Amino acid sequence: MTSDRASNLPSLPFRVVSIAGRSATHFKFAPDAAARKAIAAALDLIDLPQMVFDGDIRPSGKRDMVLTGKLTALAIQPCSVTLEPVRTRIDETVLRQYLADFEVPKGEEVEIPEDDSVEALGEVIDAAEVAIEALALALPLYPRAIGVELGELVVAPPDVEPLRDADLKPFAGLAKLIDKAGKTGGES
Prior knowledge:
This protein is of the alpha+beta class. It is 24% helix and 31% strand.
């Protein structure tokens, strides 16, 4: 998402100090048509007719927070082959752990943590931001319309036999040689 698109996105912020000490704070993020349109534009969707993120933010230990929620959505993306609309139903459980003593790794070569649900605890937890991120991660990278196959493009200059995908497989030629050797070896 570009920063221009991100600035138009809806927000549902919760100040951490107002949640601390409580058992849980419930939220329900159900963006209206204009907000869904902004989210769809930010995620390069054709449309986002439905989206609801329902959950809780609760303290965990003395200083940490946990957000759990259920994201349901209907997203319409362009087919990666034909650009036809492809409907995708999203039904995801979302978990984010916000740690007060989480340190962001520094340096040129940084090891990516295995648990991507852990983040540094800031002053605000934005449930809408979490929902939009979860939606973006749940969408198929290369959606395809039903029955659409990615074809093979074969191009070559005149008088040259084009290479096909099967010709580029490393053991395809070896298998042909073994077949040929077996046939000629058995004929003697």
